[in-house]
Specification:
With about 600 residues, the chain is an alpha+beta fold. It has 14 helices and 24 strands. Helices cover about 25% and strands about 25% of the residues.
Length: about 600
C-alpha cells in the first residue's frame, strides 16, 4: 500500500468469535481453534472454543435440522476476541488476512490432534461494513440531480459487520455434521471518512463450473487454483502498486470447483479518473490453473505432495497461498507456465449499481503454455558426441531432448461450457464522473490564477504563467501546450469581474468587449447599474471550456471532406497523424 496519511479520529473496534455446530455426541470432545491478530496486525495466540459438548444449546434455529440425525446436538458459543485500535497497520493486515480454522480432537496419548482442512475466515470483507447511505430531501428528485452530475445518495443497507468461514464442508470429521463460524464487530471498522478515502472494493471468486474432469487429472496435475490480477495499460499503470497479483487456495479436481475467495483492494489511493477508466474498460483477469504438472519437488520444497509415512503435505499452490498471506516471502514463487484457462471481467455496471454490488459470469477461454519457447531455448545447446549413448549423463540428455515437443495441449474449456462466477462489491458510491472532473478542473484553475500576469499592453487580458515552464520538454498526454487567457473588467465602485479561462487570447478579448459593452448600455435609474454585466458574466462562465483541459477526453474526432485529387492536403494530414502517434509512443519519425 502506498503511503497514507492516517489523520483520522481514534477508533477502537471489538471483535467477537461465534461458533454454531451440529454434531453427534461421539465427537463432543472436539474443539475449534483459530489464530488471531494483535494491535499491530501480526498473528498472535490462538482463540479456542470447546469442547463442543460443553457449549450451550442453540435454540435460535429450532430442532428441525437435527430430526433426521438421531442423537445429534446443536450448540452455539460466543467468545470476545478483544478490542483493537484501528490503525493503518491493522487495516493492511485485515485486508489480506485468511485465518485457517483448526478442529482439534483428543489423540490416543492425550495430546490434541489437528484435523487439516481448507476452511478459513477471510477478514477483508469486514472493511466494507458501514457504507450505508441515507437519501436526502434534495436527492428525492434524484434523476434530475444525477443528470447534472450531483453525487446521488444511494439508498441501500450497509454491509454486514460480520464474515462467515468458507469451505467448512472440507472438515472431514465423522459425526461433525455442520460447523458455522463467524467473526463480527460491534461497530464498522472504518468510519465513513475512512471509507471515502480508502474506497475499498471486494471481488469474490465464487466458483468455476463445468470444468473438464477426466479421472486421470489428479494423478498427473496439481489441484486447481486461481490467479487474480488487474489488466492494466499505460493509462492505468498507476494501479499496479495498489492491486497486487494474488493466488487462491488449491481445490481438488472436480467438474465444479468452489473457492469463495475474496480479494479486497483500496481504490481511493489512486486518482479517481484512472480507477474509473480501469473499471469500465480494462478490469480483472482470472487464470484457472488446472493443468499445472505435478512434480516430485513442488516449487523447491523438496517433498512430494501426499508422501506416505508422514502427515499430508501442502500442494505448491497451497504453500504459496500460506506464504503470501503471512509474509513468508516477498514475491510469489516463480513457477513454470502451464496451459490454463483465462476469464476477464469488466465492472462498468458496478459504477451504476444502486446496491453497490453486481454478480458477474465470464466464459473461460484456453491459454497456451510456453512449450515452443522452452524447446527453442533447449535446442540452442548442442549434444556432445562423446559418451552420448554409453553414459548415464548422455542418455539423460537424449531423453530430455526427445521429451521436448512443440505441441501445445490446449484444454477445450469453451466446448464444455466452462464459466466462472464473481461478485463485486463497493463500500461507498464511486464519485460521479462530472463531480471528479469539476473538482480537478477547479484545482487546475486555482493554480492558473495563482500564476497569472497581464498579457500585452492593450486591453486587460491576463495569462497564466506556471513557474519554470520547460518549453523544450515534450507535451504531456492530454495537457495543452497553450497557456490559458482570461479578461478582467473593472466596475464602478472598485469591484472587478473576472471572465472565464479561454484557450486563445482572441476569445478572452471577445469576453472583455461584451462585458464592457454591457456596462455602457445600462438603463438610467436602475437600482443596480451592473446587473446586466453580472448576468452576462454568469452566462460566460456557464459555457463549457472547449479544448482547455483535455485530460478527460478519451478521443478527438476530426472529419475532413476533401477531393481525392487534393494530394497535398491528404499527405499533410497523414504526416501529422504519424508524427503525433510516434510522439505518443516515444518513437523518432526520422
Amino acid at each position: 500500500m502506498a503511503a497514507v496519511s492516517w489523520d483520522f479520529e481514534p477508533r477502537n473496534v471489538a471483535f467477537t468469535l461465534s461458533v454454531h455446530a451440529t454434531f453427534h455426541p461421539s465427537v463432543g470432545s472436539a474443539s475449534v481453534s483459530i489464530p488471531w491478530l494483535d494491535a499491530t496486525g501480526a498473528l498472535s495466540s490462538s482463540a479456542s472454543v470447546g469442547p463442543l459438548s460443553a457449549l450451550g444449546a442453540d435454540a435460535s434455529r429450532g430442532s428441525r435440522s437435527v430430526h433426521h440425525r438421531p442423537g445429534a446436538r446443536r450448540v452455539r458459543a460466543e467468545k470476545e476476541l478483544g478490542s483493537l485500535p484501528v490503525t493503518l497497520a491493522l487495516v493492511q493486515a485485515l485486508r489480506q488476512a485468511a485465518l485457517p480454522i483448526k478442529v482439534l480432537l483428543p489423540g490416543p496419548s492425550g495430546e490434541a490432534v489437528e484435523v487439516l482442512s481448507s476452511a478459513r475466515v477471510h477478514l477483508g470483507p469486514l472493511l466494507l461494513a458501514g457504507g450505508a447511505a441515507e437519501p436526502s430531501s434534495e436527492d428525492a428528485e434524484s434523476e434530475e440531480g444525477a443528470s447534472q452530475g450531483a453525487q446521488v445518495a444511494w439508498t441501500r443497507p450497509g454491509k454486514p459487520q460480520r464474515v462467515a468461514a468458507v469451505l467448512t464442508d472440507s472438515i472431514g470429521v465423522a459425526g461433525l455434521y455442520s460447523l458455522d463460524i463467524y467473526i463480527s464487530t460491534d461497530i464498522p471498522i472504518l468510519s465513513r471518512e475512512m471509507l471515502d478515502k480508502l474506497m475499498p472494493v471486494c471481488f469474490t471468486m465464487e466458483a468455476v463450473s463445468s470444468l473438464p474432469n477426466e479421472s486421470w487429472l489428479p494423478d498427473k496435475y496439481e489441484d486447481i487454483h486461481l490467479e487474480v490480477y488487474p489488466q492494466l495499460s499505460r493509462v492505468t499503470s498507476a494501479l499496479a502498486d495498489q492491486l497486487p497479483h494474488l493466488r487462491s487456495i488449491a481445490r481438488p479436481h472436480d467438474a465444479t470447483a468452489r473457492f469463495s475467495e475474496p480479494v479486497v483492494w483500496f481504490l481511493g489511493l489512486t486518482p479517481p479518473h484512472v480507477v474509473r477508466e480501469w473499471l469500465q474498460h480494462e478490469g480483472l483477469v482470472v487464470e484457472i490453473h488446472d493443468r499445472d504438472v505435478r512434480t516430485a519437488e513442488a516449487n523447491g520444497v523438496g517433498q512430494e505432495v501426499g508422501t506416505e509415512g508422514g502427515p499430508p503435505k501442502l500442494s505448491g499452490a497451497e504453500l504459496n497461498v500460506l506464504l503470501d498471506r503471512h509474509g513468508g516471502h516477498g514475491e510469489a514463487v516463480k513457477r513454470k507456465p502451464h496451459p490454463h484457462g483465462v476469464a476477464r471481467f469488466q465492472f462498468g455496471a458496478l459504477l451504476e449499481s444502486r446496491s453497490l454490488q453486481v454478480n458477474l459470469r465470464s466464459e473461460v477461454l484456453p491459454n497456451r503454455s510456453d512449450k515452443k519457447r522452452t524447446r527453442a531455448e533447449a535446442m540452442k545447446d548442442g549434444l556432445p558426441a562423446k559418451g552420448l549413448m554409453d553414459t548415464e549423463e548422455g542418455v539423460g540428455l537424449v531423453a530430455q531432448r526427445s521429451a521436448l515437443d512443440k505441441r501445445e495441449d490446449t484444454t477445450d474449456y469453451h466446448a464444455c461450457g466452462c464459466v466462472i462466477t464473481l461478485r463485486a462489491s463497493l463500500a461507498v458510491p464511486f464519485p460521479d464522473m462530472r463531480a471528479v472532473q469539476e473538482k480537478e478542473h477547479g484545482q487546475r484553475q486555482d493554480h492558473w490564477a495563482a500564476h497569472e500576469q497581464k498579457h500585452g499592453e492593450e486591453g486587460n487580458i491576463f495569462v497564466a504563467t506556471p513557474a519554470q515552464v520547460d518549453e523544450s520538454a515534450p507535451a504531456k498526454h492530454g495537457v495543452p501546450r497553450e497557456l490559458p487567457f482570461r479578461a478582467k473588467v473593472a466596475l464602478a465602485g472598485g469591484s472587478e469581474l473576472v471572465g472565464p479561462w479561454r484557450k486563445q487570447r482572441v476569445h478572452a478579448e471577445d469576453d472583455e468587449r461584451q462585458l464592457r459593452a454591457a456596462a455602457e448600455v445600462q438603463a438610467d435609474g436602475a437600482e443596480d447599474p451592473t446587473a446586466a454585466v453580472r448576468a452576462l458574466h454568469e452566462e460566460l462562465h456557464q459555457q463549457p471550456p472547449h479544448g482547455l483541459d483535455c485530460r478527460f477526453e478519451r478521443f478527438g474526432r476530426v472529419v475532413l471532406v476533401v477531393d481525392e485529387g487534393e494530394l497535398d492536403v491528404i499527405s499533410k494530414v497523414i504526416k501529422k497523424v504519424v508524427v503525433w502517434n510516434a510522439g505518443m509512443k516515444g518513437l523518432d519519425t526520422n
